[in-house]
Amino acid sequence: MLARWPLTLDAAACENNTLVPRYLGPDHPDPAHRDALTFEHWADLAGGGVVWLNPPYVPTAKLSSFLGRAVATARAGVPVVGLLPASTGASWWWEHVIETGAGVEFLRGRLSFHGPHARLGGASAPWASALVLWSS
Ligand SMILES: C[S@@+](CC[C@H](N)C(=O)[O-])C[C@H]1O[C@@H](n2cnc3c(N)ncnc32)[C@H](O)[C@@H]1O
């Protein structure tokens, strides 16, 4: 499903769940790469590829901050693909997805999330999900 994009940076990750070798996340060996929200330019790390973003979904303010960074990165010329809850009634969805003209691909069924950050313990999520593509 993701093979169609040359992903080069995972902007919300840990060493054990990053989709690609280069990531931003709290356990990164370089302290400057531990917080994607304070790291100035994701585009500088993308190396000509596409940024992957499956951010923390709560709290909403943190999710919105991640999405704001995704939009800014796309405007700087580097595409970002995000996996998000398809929360079509949420303000953040309208602000960061609809009103930015991002591409949306709704995913059939329900995803299950695994690993230390999976709050559902591997059970299927009660929400629908979507892939969102921000590109300039
Ligand atoms: C939903 S998981 C994504 C896991 C994996 N990268 C993926 O795409 O499936 C969210 C990740 O965001 C990381 N994270 C939380 N706050 C962060 C921050 N401020 N900067 C970078 N990563 C962060 C967590 O450590 C966690 O690994």
Major sheet: arrangement of strands: 1-2-3-5-4
The fold-level CATH name is: Rossmann fold
How many beta strands in the DSSP annotation? 5
Shape: globular
Describe the main β-sheet briefly: 5 strands, mixed
CATH architecture: 3-Layer(aba) Sandwich
Tell me which ligands are bound: S-adenosylmethionine
H and E order: EHEHEHEE
Task: Quickly give the structural class.
Answer: alpha/beta
Description:
By secondary structure, the protein is of the alpha/beta class. The protein has a single domain (7-134), classed as Rossmann fold, CATH 3.40.50. It has helices at 42-46, 60-75, 91-96, and strands at 7-10, 50-53, 80-85, 103-107, 129-134. A 5-stranded mixed β-sheet has the order 1-2-3-5-4. It is globular. The model has no long low-confidence stretch (mean pLDDT 94). The structure holds S-adenosylmethionine. The site of S-adenosylmethionine (SAM) has 16 residues, from loops.
